[in-house]
């Protein structure tokens, strides 16, 4: 997938500060301009840290002199009650930056924490868990970065870097073979994945030359049959109504990938708090 860049992070931060600060933080203006303080951010629960670059960028955008001193790195397990970072500078600037900085850190740490949990559930199976395009608008690359920090993997970043031919595409193109053939002509070299709902459709996708097949809502036995049929000639991805309860069983069928929208769609922000120390 396209690499996350500093420009991506800066774009996220500019948008966040524009909607939060607007024409100015009128509450922070109550504080004497000369007041200086140290802020400490802690986590109230265990998790996986993610989002340092966004936090640094928020504070720097509000006041270039604000430089957080971190106690943990992205991808590191953190424990309830631990300090994540401290930052010292003008009290007004600290409070203006607080919400946007914590919004990024809570969301991305929450995403990474959820992914770590799911990755632990399939440990030892060899399957790779994939995210989807079910992300918060404007924060796709950020959330996909958090997915990697949590130990899972990225699917395509968008509609432009790989084909995912689904039922509606197949119907509109006149069949699986026609859709795959057209994909190779439209964007030669781009990965071509086909979603199938039956073994017959799987056989069509194999014959058409797909690179990967998504098994949509297959039973466990049907997944095992698909793995045996394909015999590693192409990649198989399981998807559709896969929960924490069924995840391990699906992984043990031998599929190469499992895609789960919940990795990013159902994220709960990690509980963080910032306090001024002086």
Main traits of this protein?
single chain, alpha/beta, 278 residues, elongated, 10 helices
Give me a quick take on this structure:
With 278 residues, the protein is of the alpha/beta class. The protein has helices at residues 6-21, 52-62, 91-121, 140-149, 167-173, 176-186, 199-208, 220-230, 244-251, 262-265, and strands at 36-43, 47-48, 69-70, 77-78, 83-90, 128-130, 163-165, 192-196, 212-216, 235-239, 257-259, 272-276. A 6-stranded parallel sheet has the order 6-11-10-9-8-7.
Description of the molecule:
The protein is α/β, with parallel strands linked by helices and 278 residues long. The model has no long low-confidence stretch (mean pLDDT 97). It is elongated and about 70 Å long. 43% of the residues lie in helices and 18% in strands. The two termini are 44 Å apart. The protein has a six-stranded parallel sheet. A four-stranded antiparallel sheet has the order 3-5-1-12, with helices on one face. A two-stranded antiparallel ribbon has the order 2-4. It has ten helices and twelve strands.
Helix and strand pattern: HEEHEEEHEHEHHEHEHEHEHE
State the helical fraction. Answer: 40-55%
Compute the number of helices.
10
Average pLDDT for all residues: 97
- What is the CA-CA span between the terminal residues? 44 Å
Give the helix/strand class: alpha/beta
Taking pLDDT < 50 over at least 5 consecutive residues as the criterion, the unreliable ranges are none
What is the topology, as strand order, of the major beta sheet? 6-11-10-9-8-7
